[in-house]
Amino acid sequence: MHTNREVKVARSGAAWDRPRWLEFKVAAIRLLLLWMMAVFAAHAVAQDDETSSRKMAWQNAGAYSYHFDRDTNYREDNIGMGAELAYSADNSLMAGTLINSQRARTRYLGLQWRPVHGWVGNVQVHAGVAIAAMDGYPKMREGGWFPGLLPLLAVEGRYVGLNLSMVPTIPNRMDGAVLIQLKLRVW
What we know:
Shape: globular
Order of helices and strands: HHEEEEEEEE
Number of helices: 2
Structural class: alpha+beta
Distance between the termini: 57 Å
Largest sheet: 8 strands, antiparallel, barrel
Radius of gyration: 18 Å
């Protein structure tokens, strides 16, 4: 009979897997560093009151995922590099790369369509969908490119923003998760 830890290690199949407590600490440190970078960037950039009508460029360092099936050994700190270019109030182009939850490289290219807008204090809130082509998931077209359509909620301050999305569970292809992406305005 296997203990729970032995089953998880055997399931992952990778000798280099870090213990879960260490992964949490690494993810927390990365999130803290991203937050500090965002605070310093917010103080360094000049004030701009017309953010809703101007083109904006955002940069991100990947995403964090929270999987619905907590018994899996998925990577949840999906580090990488990405960018968004908001060319209108409703539309943004996005592109990037990250290490996905299955520990493989994913590249994506897509469009955010965010037709619902609102304000909460000094923060803009946009709702819509992200339509993208992505690769790197072994059970989806054997790791090749495939289309994706995800619900999207974007919360954007003057210099710091957050994208929130949900990946649905597709049986025998992809396990569902909530995605959180911190982003910094660079233009």
